[in-house]
Amino acid sequence: MIVLGIETATPQTSIALGGTDGVLASVSFAASRAQREAVVPALEDLLARTGLSLGQVAGIVTGLGPGLFTGLRVGVETAKSLAQVLRVPILGIPSLDSLAFSVRHTDRVIAAVIDARRGEVFSCLYRPSPGGVQRSSEFSVGPASRLAAELEALGEEVLAVGNGAVLYRDELVAAHTEVAIYGHQHPDATSLVELAVPRFMREERDDLFELVPIYLRKSDAELAWDDRTRAAG
Predict the structure, then answer these.
(1) Long-range contact list for 210-214, CB < 8 A, 24+ apart?
(2) pLDDT tens digits for range 34-74
(3) What is the Cβ-side half-sphere exposure of residue 62, based on CA atoms within 13 angstroms?
(4) What is the pLDDT of residue 37?
(5) What is the pTM of this model?
(6) 99-140 pLDDT, tens per residue?
(7) 2-95+187-229 and 103-179 in the same fold
(8) By the 8 A CB rule, do 61 and 6 touch?
């Protein structure tokens, strides 16, 4: 089967096509506010490169976040629209899960860290398991300093991955955590496809109308409004 992966939780959007033989093609690019318009041309390019047609896509997987509000909403809605039009099953996978999966071959605790802006990060801890990773904490959002303190308190070797880890590298390194600098800075659609194919083969799927992004906090616009309201009061 052919699976389409769409990941838009961070400033880097990625799209991938793959199946039981692995990932066939992928593309990543810095997304602008015109993200909705950028996804479709990128998908058309992938289809042309692989010689596939949209009608051959048998399943769609999308990153659910947590991540940046607008891009995340656009990606999930685009994936849902395609699934409905093509009448194919859809899966949603947390973006932190796919980010951790990209470094699954380590023997250390994995901290997946996405920049949440406003001085905060989205994060979750994982432990390597046969064929992948297992979540060992809840998804959270908060200051990088709080995450650093939690990692130091673990007393174990930790590999931090993601653009949030790179942004706050000094704080994490001070907490005896190694930061993966080269590659793996963003959750990627190739990991989504690799995770989704075996699940689709087991006939797993999510409910199209119940699938929603993981936000963890209000949008920047809502937070800005709250700040102005408090200042006015």
Answers:
(1) 211/62, 211/64, 211/76, 211/80, 211/90, 211/92, 212/64, 212/76, 213/64, 213/65, 213/66, 213/67, 213/72, 213/73, 213/76, 214/64, 214/65, 214/66, 214/94, 214/95, 214/139
(2) 555 688 889 999 999 999 999 999 999 999 999 988 889 99
(3) 29
(4) 67
(5) 0.91
(6) 999 999 999 999 999 999 999 999 999 999 998 999 999 999
(7) yes
(8) yes
Lookup: tokens for 138: 């809840």
In whole angstroms, what is the distance from residue 99 CA to residue 110 CA?
Answer: 10
Which CATH number applies to 2-95+187-229: 3.40.50.150, 3.30.420.40, 3.55.10.10, 3.30.930.10? 3.30.420.40
Domain 103-179 has CATH 3.30.420.200: yes
